[in-house]
Amino acid sequence: LAKTTQPISMDSYEGQEVNITCSHNNIATNDYITWYQQFPSQGPRFIIQGYKTKVTNEVASLFIPADRKSSTLSLPRVSLSDTAVYYCLVGGFMDTGRRALTFGSGTRLQVQP
Amino acid sequence: GAVVSQHPSWVICKSGTSVKIECRSLDFQATTMFWYRQFPKQSLMLMATSNEGSKATYEQGVEKDKFLINHASLTLSTLTVTSAHPEDSSFYICSASDPLNTIYFGEGSWLTVV
C-alpha cells in the first residue's frame, strides 16, 4: 500500500486559496489519488479524485505532476466552514473492485476570520 | 455523489452485550464494503474488508470473533460487536466503492459501552 505524507497542520484566513501537498513516492501504476474532508464526529466526505494531470470540480482542484509522486489539493477562497482534517489517500484495485484505502494522519486545516 | 448510510448514528450498550451496526449503499450496489474505527483525535484504522457472499477479510490484530461482519446483500453490510467492553467504545465508519470506482464513507456510528 502506498504511504502518503502530508503536513500535520496548516493555518489560513478566510478568502485565501489553500494548497495542501501530499507526497506518495511509491504510488502504484493503477492507484488513484483521492482527497477527503472530515469534520469531528462525521465520516470522511469525498472531495476530489484523480489519476494524472489536473482535475477540477465545484469545490476544489487537484494537481498531479507527471511522475505522480505527489499531488496538491487546492481549495479556492476558503471559509470558516472549511476548517477540518483533510486526508490524501492513494489506492488501487483488487479482483472485486477498489482496494481499501489506508489513512495517514491527515492535515488539520484551521481557517481564521 | 453516491450515498452510504449507517445506522444507528449512536448507540449505548451495557458491557457484555452485543450491538449491530448497519451500513447501506443507498443508490448503488457494492460488492465490497470496508469497516474502520476511529478513536478521538486519531485517524481512521481499517478493520476489515466485507465481501458480499463470502467471509470478511480482517486486518492484522482485529479479532474476527469479536467483530462479526456479514455482507448478505449487495447493499448491506453489518458489523456486530460481540460481548462489548468499554475499550470497544469508538467511532465506527463504513465505506463502499460505487460503479465509478469512487469510495464513499458513511456518516459513522458512535458506540459507547458502559
Task: Write out key terms for the chains shown.
heterodimer, A: mainly beta, 5-stranded mixed sheet, 11 strands, globular, B: 114 residues, 7-stranded mixed sheet, 0% helix
Structure description:
The complex is a heterodimer of chains A (113) and B (114). By secondary structure, chain A is mainly beta. Helices cover 0% and strands 50% of the residues of chain A. Chain A has no helices and eleven strands. In chain A, a hairpin with a 4-residue loop joins β5 (53-56) and β6. Chain A is globular. By secondary structure, chain B is mainly beta. Helices cover 0% and strands 53% of the residues of chain B. Chain B has no helices and eleven strands. In chain B, the strands form two sheets. In chain B, strands 2, 4, 5, 6, 9, 10 and 11 form a seven-stranded mixed β-sheet that branches. The A-B interface holds A 32, 34, 36, 41-46, 49, 87, 91, 93-94, 96-98, 100-106 and B 1, 4, 6, 31-32, 34, 36, 43-46, 49, 51, 91, 93, 95, 97, 101-108, 110.
Helical amount of chain A: under 10%
Euclidean distance between termini CA atoms of chain B: 36 Å
Q: Given the structure, what is the number of helices of chain A?
A: 0
* Rg estimate of chain B, integer Å: 13 Å
Strand segment tally of chain A: 11
Radius of gyration of chain A: 14 Å
Distance between the termini of chain A: 38 Å
Largest interface comes to:
A-B, 24 and 26 residues
**Estimated structural class of chain B:** mainly beta
Approximately how much beta-strand content do the residues of chain A carry?
Answer: over 45%
Biggest sheet strand line-up of chain A: 1-11-8-3-4
**Average of the residue pLDDT scores of chain B:** 94
Instruction: Give the biggest sheet of chain A.
Output: 5 strands, mixed
Share in helix of chain B = under 10%
Order of helices and strands of chain A: EEEEEEEEEEE
Strand elements of chain B, count: 11
Low-confidence stretches of chain B: none
Structural shape of chain B: globular
Beta-strand residue fraction of chain B? over 45%
Q: Judging from the principal axes of the Cα atoms, what is the shape of chain A?
A: globular
Uncertain regions of chain A: pLDDT < 50 for 5+ in a row?
none
